[in-house]
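Ticket #4471: structure output looks truncated?

Reporter: J.K.
Steps to reproduce: submitted the chain below (290 residues) through the standard prediction queue, then opened the result file.
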Amino acid sequence: MDGGPADTDRSGHGTFVAGLIAARPVPRSGFVGLAPAATILPIRVTGDPGAVDPDRLAAGIRRAVDSGARVVAVGLIGTGDTPALRAAVTAARERDVLVVASAAVRRVGQRAFPASLDGVLAVSPVGPDGLAKSVLLGARPALAAPAEQLVGIGPSGSGHRLAAGPELAVGYAAGAAALVRARHPALTAAETITRLTDTADAPAAPDPTIGAGVVNPVAAVTTIAPEPRRTTPPSEHIAIPDRSTVDKRPARVAVWFVAGLAALTLVATGAVTAVAHARRRSGARSRVDP
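Returned output as attached by the reporter:
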């Protein structure tokens, strides 16, 4: 964090990402964010989207977690790896907070952080024709999201903006994650990632540049999860004795038991009949006697 308030946006970058996630509907406008009921907690970590200090990013993630965020959208391209950043991501994972980050990098040979860390939902950018043009990946993406020809909001004014950039895919994926966590609050962060990847629009052939496929927010929210697989019970060994050595006493006991049960039934029936008959005779006397 750079010490300044996060309620203003000089570049408009953060506002655009936030709008993709949770822009509210307004009259005479067809634009709305993926999760318009979500609450945005703006945290500034840099004044220049092209210059990201990993320790400031770590401080921003920690502040988001401490403030109660369930999804943290890192709408920047980060390539710095520090102990502070790793610790912040570990803390988020331990508190069941889902961190979403871009798998893109700016130069060949770089690694994407925090997208490369365990538990982070790494997102690659796609355009209308597949992987976004001139994009380098520094982490293995779990899935992909739109990042070209996007419509969004600006920090001021009543119009809309068109923008493109690999990090904008984070907004789309984070919005889908917010929807899932709101609709299925019992899911953990890890289970939310699984649901997003299981319901993504998978490519016709495996494509490591887009992971499981392009995120599908509607399917992620509405798909009914399959029931857990039931394991086949272990087979039982049943020993069948030789007929020549069969003990006939259980059969005789069973016959006596059946006979006794029949007698008991008859006795019970007779008792009921006798009681009913006695009641009828008693009733008849009561009607005849003055």
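Triage note (M.O.): checked the attachment and the full token line is present. Residues 124 and 144 are 5 Å apart (CA to CA).
Status: closed, working as intended.
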